[in-house]
Amino acid sequence: MDRLLRSIKLEINEKIYKKDPQSSELGKKIIEHGILLIHQLGFEDFTFKKLGVQIGSNESSIYRYFENKHKLLLYLTSWYWGWLEYQLVFSTNSIQDKNQKLKKAIEIITREIEEDSSFSYINEVILNKIIINEYSKSYLTKEVDKENKEGYFIIYKRLADRLSEMISLVNPEYPFPTSLASTLLEGSLHQYFLRDHFTSLTECKESNSVTLYFTDLVFNSLNIKNNG
Amino acid sequence: MDRLLRSIKLEINEKIYKKDPQSSELGKKIIEHGILLIHQLGFEDFTFKKLGVQIGSNESSIYRYFENKHKLLLYLTSWYWGWLEYQLVFSTNSIQDKNQKLKKAIEIITREIEEDSSFSYINEVILNKIIINEYSKSYLTKEVDKENKEGYFIIYKRLADRLSEMISLVNPEYPFPTSLASTLLEGSLHQYFLRDHFTSLTECKESNSVTLYFTDLVFNSLNIKNNG
DNA sequence: ACACTACGATAGTAATACTATTATATTTGC
DNA sequence: GCAAATATAATAGTATTACTATCGTAGTGT
Question: Is pTM beyond 0.85 here?
Answer without folding.
Answer: yes
